[in-house]
Amino acid sequence: MTVDRFVTFSLSDIQAVCFQCEDAECGARLIVPPDNLDIGVLDECPSCRRDWWRKAEGAKGMGLPTGATPMVAFLKALPRIRLAEDNGLLGFTLLLQFDDPSCK
Ligand SMILES: [Zn+2]
Predict the structure, then answer these.
(1) N or C: which end of the chain has fewer CB within 10 A?
(2) Do the bridges between strand 29-32 and strand 17-20 make them parallel or antiparallel, or are there none, so unpaired?
(3) Can you state the percent helix, strand and coil of the chain, rounding each to 5?
């Protein structure tokens, strides 16, 4: 018999959103509340000042590369989805499923 163990979280379980710098020598983390995020704080790493949106690689429209657009959309949608769930405006709850870390 095989038993798969996992944990599920809803968006309302999110305590903070953490952004980690991809610079190999930096790795700094910026941790912010999920419902009150100013996208502007993501312009550069607060530690090494690396350009987090990599504007120089393909500025378009908002001055952001194509890969940034869905990230911005997700970050802006997150508090709105949480509010909709909290107010019972949806007939379902979005759950995210992960392997149980205690089983690794
Ligand atoms: Zn950095």
Answers:
(1) N
(2) antiparallel
(3) 30, 20, 50
User: What gap in Å lies between CA 97 and CA 8, rounded to an integer?
Assistant: 4
The pTM of the full predicted model, rounded to 2 decimals, is 0.77
Cα separation, 18 vs 39, whole angstroms: 13
Task: Give the H/E segment covering residue 30.
Answer: strand 29-32
Distance 10 CA to ligand 1 centre (A): 29
Q: How far is the CA of 62 from the centre of ligand 1 (A)?
A: 23
Closest CA to 59 of 50, 68, 70: 68
Give the pLDDT mean for 59-83: 76
Distance 17 CA to ligand 1 centre (A): 16
Ligand 1 center–CA 30 separation, angstroms: 10
Q: How many CB atoms lie within 10 A of CB 13?
A: 11
Most confidently predicted of 40-44, 66-70, 87-91: 87-91
